[in-house]
Amino acid sequence: MTALDLADPVAVVGTGTMGQGIAQVALVAGHPVRLYDAVPGRARDAAQAIGARLDRLVEKDRLTGAERDAARARLRPAENLAELADSHLVVEAVLERLDVKQQLLRELEEIVTDDCLLATNTSSLSVTAIGGALRSPGRLVGLHFFNPAPLLPLVEVVSGFASDVTSATRAYETARAWGKTPVACADTPGFIVNRIARPFYAEAFAVYEAQAADPATIDAVLRESGGFKMGAFELTDLIGQDVNESVTRSVWEAFFQDVRFTPSLAQRRLVESGRHGRKTGRGWYAYGDDAERPEPHTAEKAQPPAYVVAEGGLGPAAELLPLIREAGIQVREDEEDHGTRLVLPSGGQLALADGQTSVEFRDVVYFDLALDYRKATRIALSASQDTQPGTLAEAIGLFQALGKDVSVIGDVPGLIVARTVARIIDLAHDAVTKGVATEEDIDTAMRLGVNYPLGPFEWSRKLGKGWAYDVLEELHLRDPSGRYAPSLALYRHAYASEKREGTP
Q1: In the CATH scheme, what is the code of domain 307-409?
Q2: Can you tell me whether residue 331 is helix, strand or coil?
Q3: Tens digits of per-residue pLDDT, 242-300?
Q4: Start and end of every 3-hydroxyacyl-CoA dehydrogenase NAD binding domain (predicted)?
């Protein structure tokens, strides 16, 4: 099944920000576009707003004047649903309520032709449930654009339980013809992005609730060590705390209150207080002309050690060894040891975050995972009250000698980046095993939809197939609620192809 022909009219119902964005995408691609809104006058206002945005595209040399004029001529506001009868695709972007969407699509089904494709832009409702109200649910698919639709490339093409393969394929190819990057997804709570992204927010909030670090420090570590474009606190302020918390809650409820998706009490308090982020002038941070952004906690200058003893290859942190040598610090390697730690001159140890805590051992400092230790500009360390001051000072001095700012946080298992990445990897493997999407589409969705530096499977290959499972096993031992219990899918991945002796 091929994409819609450019001569085929496309209709968009609902003229809010998302509806206007989708209409603009179809219009610029070359389709005749009909706009409808139940509130009189809104469709006409939306058409004018789209026209103004087309003018700005001409000013930025992204459209020619002739292309703009042709696009304007193809755009027409509709006074009633009956004017959409000749549409080959209708995308609804109305209020996020199941009954509203069902009623609208039932009405449309009686107006358009039998071969017209119907699409919902829902971000949180079940496509299957929406289609359940239709006479022909096979023609309904989800087309989940990301805001702002004209700028962001990702579109999740969601197949409900009754969606025809031909309908999903046509929607997929049409999105691609519009210059978007579509990914195919089964109908599941949160689809791909809003399902797999939950730990990015949840783990940051958990570290904050444990009083291990403040929002500015957690955000700085996620950016400067994890390679994420924004930290969880600043990103939810941008999205809107009410919106982000609502999505988390809807996913949690749709999974029958699965503990892996439990909302944050701290975020709930923020929402209840009216601090919804940038749009209200205050969220986790204050906004406005006189607002001062808090600085992350950064350790004072410390003396680096003269040498370290590397016991084992440091696993995912192996690239630290050449960096240490380049800094003029001697590295003595104990090739007979198979551990993953550095022994400092004080006798204390420095180990990569693995889900354990410093208080469980004598004189151990944990350091956090980094996307790229050479490029990272900040590293988080954790120590307990039993860690010797000299050991912590040597650990701080070591990373400072590598050109990194150091943030010492509370003794929480998995620190910040490690626990976050491990959980994202786990949810991604679980989604593939349950038929939600392919590995490739999940990686694409997370890179393009939420701007992750790597897709979950790219992270998994970089870190080693057993790394995420081992970290989550340790976290689960310390929090047996089930939040960190590794999925069966991740267990199978971690132990695939391992040779074992004996029989079951």
Answers
A1: 3.40.50.720
A2: strand
A3: 999 999 999 999 999 999 999 999 999 999 999 999 999 999 999 998 899 999 999 99
A4: 10-187
Q: What is the mean pLDDT of the chain?
A: 96
Positions marked catalytic: 123, 144, 156, 194
What is each CA distance from 250 to 200, 244, 254, 462, in whole angstroms? 16, 10, 6, 32
User: How far is Cα 387 from Cα 405, in angstroms, rounded to an integer?
Assistant: 20
- Residue 245's alpha-carbon distances to 96, 191, 320, 377, in angstroms, are 15, 16, 38, 30
Q: Which 3 state secondary structure label does DSSP give 28?
A: helix
How many angstroms separate the Cα of 419 from the Cα of each of 67, 85, 414, 482? 49, 52, 5, 14
| Closest alpha carbon to 457 in 437, 485, 475, 471 | 437
Rg of the chain taking only CA atoms, in angstroms: 26
CATH 3.40.50.720 fits 10-187, yes or no: yes
Sketch the domain layout of the chain as residue ranges. Answer: 10-187, 307-409
Q: What average pLDDT does this structure show over 397-418?
A: 98
Computed from CA positions of residues 15, 21, 23, 28, in that sequence, does the dihedral angle turn out positive or negative? Answer: positive
Report the Cα 43 to chain-centroid distance in Å. Answer: 32
Q: How far is CA 285 from the centre of its chain?
A: 21
Bridge partners, residue 495, by sequence: none
- Segment holding 339, helix H or strand E: none
CB-CB neighbours of 249 under 10 Å? 18
pLDDT of residue 1: 67
